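Feature request, filed as a ticket because there's no other form

It would be nice if the structure record came with a short human-readable summary line next to the tokens. Right now we just get the raw output. Example of a typical job, pasted below so the devs can see what we mean:
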Amino acid sequence: MTELEQKFIQARRKAIAVEYAHLNDMQQQGVMTTEGPLLLLAGAGSGKTTVLIHRVANLLRYGRGSDTEEIPIPISEDMVTFLEEYAAHPTADQQPLMQYLCAVEPAHPWEVLAITFTNKAANELKERLERMLGEEARDVWASTFHSACVRILRRDIEQIGYSRDFTIYDTDDSKRVLKDCLKELELDEKTFPVREILSVISRAKDEMLLPEDFRAYWEKNNDWRKTRIAKVYSLYTKKLRDANALDFDDIILLTVQLLQGRPEVREYYQRKFRYVLVDEYQDTNHLQYLLTSLLAGGYQNICVVGDDDQSIYRFRGANIENILSFEKQYRGVRTIRLEQNYRSTQNILDAANAVIRHNQGRRGKTLWTRNGAGEKVLIKTTFNEGDEANFVVGQVMMNYNRGMNWKDHAVLYRMNAQSNALEYAFKRSGVPYKIIGGMKFFDRAEIKDMLAYLCVINNPTDDLRVRRIVNVPSRKIGAATVDKAQILATAQGVPLYEIFRHASSYPELKSAAVKLESFTALMEEMRAKVGEMPLPEFYEFVCNRSGYTAMLTEKNDMESRGRLENVQELTSSIHAFLDNQPDDPSLSGFLDEVALYTDLDSAEESDNCVVMMTMHSAKGLEFPEVFVVGMEDGLFPGNRAMGDEEEMEEERRLCYVAMTRAREHLTMTNARQRMLFGRTTPETPSRFLEEIPEENSQWIGKPEPRQERHWSDDYNDDGGFGGRKKKRQAAPAPKPEPVKIEKAVINGETITVKELSEKIGKPAAEIIKKLFILGIMATINQEIDFDTCSLIASDYDIELEQNIAKTYEDVLLEGVDEDKDENLVERPPVVTIMGHVDHGKTSLLDAIRHSSITEGEAGGITQHIGAYTVTCNGRQITFIDTPGHEAFTAMRARGAQVTDIVILVVAADDGIMPQTVEAINHSKAAGVPIIVAINKMDKPAANPDRVKQQLTEYGLVSEEWGGDTICVPVSAKTKEGLDNLLEMVLLQADVLELKANPNRMAKGIIIEAELDKGRGPIATVLVQNGTLKVGDPIVAGMAYGRVRAMMDDKGRRVTKAGPSTPVEVLGFNEVPSAGDMLNAAEIDKLSRQVAEERRDKLKAEQLKNTHKVSLDDLFNQIAEGQMKDLNIIIKADVQGSVEAVRQALEKLSNDEVRVRCIHGAVGAITDSDVIFASASNAIVIGFNVRPNTSARALAEKENVDIRLYRIIYNAIEDIQNAMKGLFKPVFKEVELGRISVRNTFKVSGVGTIAGAYVQDGKVSRNAQVRVVRDGIVVHEGKISSLKRFKDDVKEVAAGYECGIGIENFNDIHEGDTIEAFVMEEVKR
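Raw output as currently delivered:
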């Protein structure tokens, strides 16, 4: 090798290292060592995930460049000089040339296999890679062992005799099959527990012992019990094979058998995967070890990451020898130790290092950190488990009062039974908590039922799932009939489903033949639909068609409603599956993901509560404050470990894992006596506590026993609970003089108190005191604004400077200047057609366009907004057709928001109808001119004068009658008057002088959007300004992309679309929301950054989006000159009340405020009213009516003010006082809860008692109530009696049933809603 080549190789390695300069030395080595076998011994908190991600990125960017002496291109001194200069002073513009010079056979994404142990870890790996490398990172095989094997088996399992549409059985499914096997073999389940048999079979599969080998081995050893289990194993395997099903062990076992027995398959994957990476290698079992060896057998480029000190799953079959013997298996292994910890303090690490050092045979490493020494590990000895729980809760509450969140705390224990005392203490103190490992969503019976339906649709040979659903819901098919069919299926060697399909052919099934064949006909009907509709819609179809939804709805009890909510919630899982853009977005792919779903994958980081879990469940997690409880010999370490060195070392590794979960503070507790499983026993401290050095720990209460005390007596100045008094501390060393800070910079609009204290160099406690003086109650983690910060800093003579970073949204909009008059040209008008259902809106547009739109609509009724263009007199007009049906109010409101002119279609033979009135109100609220098209003039009963007369009642007076509303008689059928209608539209457009600038970046609005199965996300866009072109980067809401194609309203491809042009756009990464503004960007990157920024700020944007009017702040807005019109929507029980309230309120208008009733109608307050109020910034007045549940929830979400009254003068007085700034209510109604009446009971001498269920809130004995029936208030009074079972109670909380009697009122009906409330005096 020449000197130039040596210099080039060194320069290349240094240049590549620049990319990873933020990593420490050992992490860099792990990233840049790409070739051959590599063992990464990664300690807890050492950043191994970061190393894995950067290693994959390095393989994709530079291939072998950082770890080879090969030079694939001619080199020169200039190249060496360039790389050396780049390494010293890297610049972005030089990076492409650097990458070209340094790359040596970069790996394709699909050539990298990265195996993790949880779906959560695999998804994190993909997401972080995608942020670094872009969309190409999605093609990396990042998955769990089981997910990777399923992909392999879906492709090649037919080579070993299975069908590709195999089903995956979870543990519960396997247990059910085993129970059937025991029953068939006449073995007692008590003698042969199912869990034990399942464990034995799992271990046999891990050792690759098939049923025949397993049976032969134990027969040779004359083991009667294991020989019987071998028969169960054999029958279990046969049943799974007949059902074309695999359990979790089979997934890996069959993959290994496939790779071992089919050389062509093995060679394909060994050629495919140039690089194999395995995380958590210390937790692999024998089968996983064989699998990784087979897949990496081609290139031998295998990197395993693990920590032998964290091998804690021996009970699941994990073999620590896999990592300890890795260097013996592969020649030329390079070993790199990651010992720098980024998580914990040094005291915690020293304590953990000292404990694990007692294990023999470990690879050896010592964790260290730059995080500082931190606090010592606190060890607390308490009297009993209740004392221990009180201590933990006291510490948590004290930390919370000091500004920490509940979720910053984790309590770890050895076994689930220990959680009982802790749960009781948390509940008693009102501390929110959750337990990881409780009842899982996918374990619920109703979810298993629906998944069983989907599994049978996907794989009808799955006998287990067929048996589960054949009589759910009830089809009067008994278990005896199913058993007979099962015997026939077994005898003939066919699936049970086939026997059901041809039940009439079997005399044994004659009586149930019709029912069985009807069941299979139903399943075949659903199977035929699986590819015809999107997966979420298909699932909803299955729920309804199977009768499962109807079954739960008919029961109408609390349990059934909860089960129905769970069934509907499964749709969210389907959407989440599709949102992750899976490789197989089919029913089969979804079922695979569900089968491989794990408990921790569902943990919500947003839940602000204390987390409780076993130490095994805590693996991979970290928390600022960790409590490890139950540190006693016999409990931890357990009794089983006392005489077994291997078990003891496993327990010690588990202790090491628990200790290294703590970031800032670790507390370990033990009790002198503990009640567990009903027995109280004296305890001794765990030997692991004795192994922690004194210099790293503080042990409270160790020497002497103490008597039980009350919680308050046990509290001492150390912030804990114990018998010892606070020790006198030594005098602190003199502190150095602090550095004088004169100026500080704050980034953003707000900053936490803690961050401010660091910026200005002052204690947080001092700042909190100053805030208190200013009237601000703040904690250390609370955010304060810049103005408040400036006041605080000025007290210390410190100048604050605010640095507000420019957002990507600002960058997107900053290049868009106001259009100059010389750049504006005339644009076509956008016309919306509105009106009542079946008044001929779409038929009218059909006639105008000379096409048949209505044929494609469900029932001939327009179901969505259609956007079309027509030409009249050489000028273009854009039409938007909105549905008139009441259910689509929101769509019609959207149409009114994007239009220039509204054509109101009224049938000449029908007149003004409710939706016509609503359309008028929407148009007026939007301030859009209205042209009335009086349609169906061809009908004999047509009476246009009656229509014009009715229009005058709503403020629309025809021009013929001296008004300013254009009315045109037309007939969509005979095309009479259409030319005149279009001329009127153009005339109105000329009056409006509609103009836009076509020579700028496009801006528009999303009219509608959907997910097309073949083409992906599609949006109908109305371009409002500028010109949209194919290839333009676009962003709308949180969706972004590049315009791949555009179609006009006639389905023709177009390359550009100018102002007022509707087009169908393809190219979004996800479906945008209707009503979102669309902007074209100059570069792809900007559109994506804007979308991601909007996604990050979603919650804040929702709060800032709009501020709805409430009566309480109306006066303030008047004073500030913000309020001119007060819009009101009135809903009442009868039409006369609507008119009376309308007239009374509109008379209140004065010079400052004009009261406008923009809509009034009869009936309960609905979603439609809330949407209208939200769009028009209106208040909803309810007179003797109530909002339904969904309207109430929507009003809270949209922040719409709903005011409810029974006396008209109260409404007038409230509005009047608000307008005058004199709003001084004496009493305020406070709603306590909502109760549904499930049943009624007549009790002699008492009256009617309502058997009720508290839906939300609570009901108390002294509360007032109102009875609501169909949205109408039928009675208001007081509670006469409130009982739970036979006992009188003061109150009943949500989720409980009760009996309610109402004073002087017995007309209570089943289905009524009772609202409980109290009247509270409002302080003036």
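Something like this underneath would help us a lot:
The first strand starts at residue 38 and ends at 42.
The chain is about 40% helix and 20% strand.
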